[in-house]
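Protein data sheet
==================
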Amino acid sequence: MEILRILWPNEHGLTIREVCRGLGSAADEEDEGPAYSSVQTRLGLMENKGLVRKDGTIRPAKYYAAVTEQGAQRHVFRELLDRFFHGSAAKLILHALRSKDISAEEREAISQRLKDLKKKST
């Protein structure tokens, strides 16, 4: 998501080096960011997953976000479900509800949303 956050506002695309700089400035102004090869590898993996697209017809190649923020969230959510909860949204929700990191207000909002969904399905 960190790379996508850098690519989203840059509709003209960014080179690997520009992404490296963006990652460095996101962490610390004095940090030059991660190694070029690490970013290149991450972008390649993201391209294979359909999260970014590469324009290799120009040199240096430019990378663009291929999904919206909402699309990326759906992708990460599906991966989370599959990897840790065996595809079960119910297991994920129950785990989240047991979490001490969720405020009472958030729990109430979740509860209300579940009630609304139940009303729609009946």
The mean pLDDT is 88. Residues 2-65 form a domain with the Arc Repressor Mutant, subunit A fold (CATH 1.10.10.10). The radius of gyration is 19 Å. DSSP finds six helices and two strands in the chain.
